[in-house]
Amino acid sequence: MFAFIYTLGIYLAQGGARLVALFHPKTRLWVKGQAQTWSLIEESENGERKTENGKRKTPTENQKTATTNHKPRITNHQYTFWFHAASLGEFEQGRPVIEACRRQYPAARIVLTFFSPSGYENKKDYDQADVVCYLPADTPAHVARFLDAVQPDMALFIKYEFWPNYLFALKKRGIPALMFSAIFRPDQLFFKAYGGFYRNVLCCLDHILVQNRESEKLLKSIDYNQVTLAGDTRLDRVVQIAKQAKTFPLIEQFKGNTPLLIVGSAWPDDLEVIFAFLHHFKHPLRVIVAPHEINAEQIKHWRQAVSVESFVYSEWLEERKTENGRFSLPDFGTSSLLFLDTVGMLSSVYRYADFVFVGGGYRDGLHNTMEPAVFGMPIFFGQPYYRKFQEALDLLQLGGAQTVANADEFSKAFTEVYENELLRKKKADICREYVQKNAGATEKVMEVIKRTFIMR
Predict the structure, then answer these.
(1) 287-308 pLDDT per residue, tens
(2) What single DSSP character describes residue 332?
(3) Is residue 4 a part of any domain in this protein?
(4) What is the domain-level CATH number for residue 212?
(5) What is the CB neighbour count within 10 angstroms for residue 241?
(6) Given this model, what pLDDT does residue 329 score?
(7) Are 217 and 211 in contact (CB under 8 A)?
């Protein structure tokens, strides 16, 4: 009964999405992408894989060998991994595992699916996957068609996304399904007295690798014992990013010898706090704001609202570059603010920060605190939407991060750290050491992947 109601809901949601797509650009991308999924899968069936420049690489005869019986061939690596990520954040979390599979099993076919346009539209040209597409809607017909076309030897779900019809079908076909970097909370349906349907869905997973001890205990409390405490693969990703971080001369010049605060993935609620704080903060400070959604008109409005001198990164790139590669910058006052309106820079720009305020904590869900933490600096964020993020809870408990409810609290907390160099260093060391200590989840995931194949 529950399965019927669920599937009916999926059909209704599909119809509703087509209607909403007439007025909502993001939904329109999803509907259009769903329609393209089948052709993308068919184009990849010959085993061709994109290289770094986006061109297709002709496979060897061994790589062309089809996988049709779901039996893994670990000796010659001729099988298919299917990875699913809800959105861009989950992709970045799973990326170390995807790339480890590519290195360890170079002849394998890798299929990557997304639910959200923010994931697919940003990573549709990802060169480590043979095909990148939207996950077809979770109806029995779509599930059967997708699995018949892809022929996965293993399905790997990143962090969450429990699609019942997919998981039931994988179980029925004998295809192992894993979930990694997962995190569970007591209020989820799996752990409720009336959550039997969702417990059945959960049990379709052959193994779950969790981020924390609490998640492990919750799963065992409902007699799910195929669980490994592995940690968060996102930590491996940020360590990798830090090692490859780019340099930005303009950012270096903007910072100079003045302390720098970076506000990363900022939403309007976050900037209300930051702007109010800047209105009263009188010490020398440079500020870089990286909005979560880049909108030229919104940035123009914010520049009019902020009380300090402000600039826009892309405008500097065009107008102020000199012949020697340096930038002709104005003389800054006590405080100056730079809007970072270029995608893909933030994770590297964090290297220049002395302090970081991570956005999303006031309303939309806290963004990635690990990207700045790996470089080592005090971290601040809003409340209350940080509690489902284990790394945020850990950094708060250890003292490397601090949560603030409003501009007054932020001003007080920031000023204390700004004026106390020893305290600043202590918090910075806590953040940096946390990342280094807890990295290594990817290796544990790869061990379970290999063990699952061998046991089959």
Answers:
(1) 999 999 889 999 999 998 888 8
(2) P
(3) no
(4) 3.40.50.11720
(5) 20
(6) 67
(7) no
SS3 433: helix
Q: What DSSP designation does 327 have? A: B
Tell me how long the chain is. Answer: 456
Best CA proximity match to 444, nearest among 230, 233, 294, 216: 230
Task: Identify residue 341 by its one-letter amino acid code.
Answer: D
DSSP lists the bridge partners of residue 132 as 112
Question: What tokens were used for 419?
Answer: 């004026």
pLDDT tens per residue, range 200-233: 999 999 999 999 999 999 999 999 999 999 999 9
**Whether residues 182 and 220 fall in one domain:** yes
Peptide bond into 384 cis (omega under 30): yes
CB 295 within 8 A of CB 302: no
The token pair at 110 is 């890798």
Q: What's the whole-model pTM score?
A: 0.78
Q: Would residue 47 count as lying in a domain?
A: no
> How far are the Cα atoms of 57, 70, 154 from residue 135, in angstroms, in the given order?
24, 20, 16
User: Residue 77 is part of which domain span?
Assistant: 23-41+64-231+440-455
Q: Locate tokens 């039996």: which residue?
A: 71
Beta bridge partners of 207: 178
Under 8 Å between Cβ of 307 and 278: yes
- Active-site residues, by number, are 90
